[in-house]
Write a structure and sequence with these properties.
The protein is built from three helices and no strands. The protein has a domain at about 5-40: Histone, subunit A (Orthogonal Bundle). The protein is flat, with a radius of gyration of 24 Å. About 40% of the residues lie in helices and about 0% in strands. It has helices spanning about 5-10, 20-40, 70-75.
């Protein structure tokens, strides 16, 4: 783990990292990689991978469609809108 790698990861995560923070991240990420190496030493032959950490099933309620507020009432709370729609900033170029 080096400063260049940390800066690349920070760029991909859209984070601004100072030099002091980069040094701390180098140490932290190095420790994580050492821990992952230790986990790779464990024999997991015959162990099924986990999808969920618990076997508890979440109780689900059936969806019930009901109109709590009107379309016009919903638009009253919009910071920006036109006649029928919420207006939001464009995020895809």
């Amino acid at each position: 783990m080096n400063k260049e790698t940390v800066n690349k990861i920070a760029h991909l995560a859209r984070l601004e990292v100072t030099d002091a923070e980069a040094e701390e991240l180098i140490n932290d990420m190095g420790n994580i990689l050492v821990f992952m190496d230790k986990l790779n030493e464990v024999d997991t032959t015959g162990v099924e991978p986990l999808v969920y950490m618990t076997t508890t099933v979440s109780p689900l309620r059936p969806d019930v469609i009901k109109q709590e507020i009107t379309h016009e009432q919903a638009l009253e709370n919009a910071p920006e809108r036109d006649e029928d729609h919420f207006r939001v900033a464009k995020v895809i170029g």
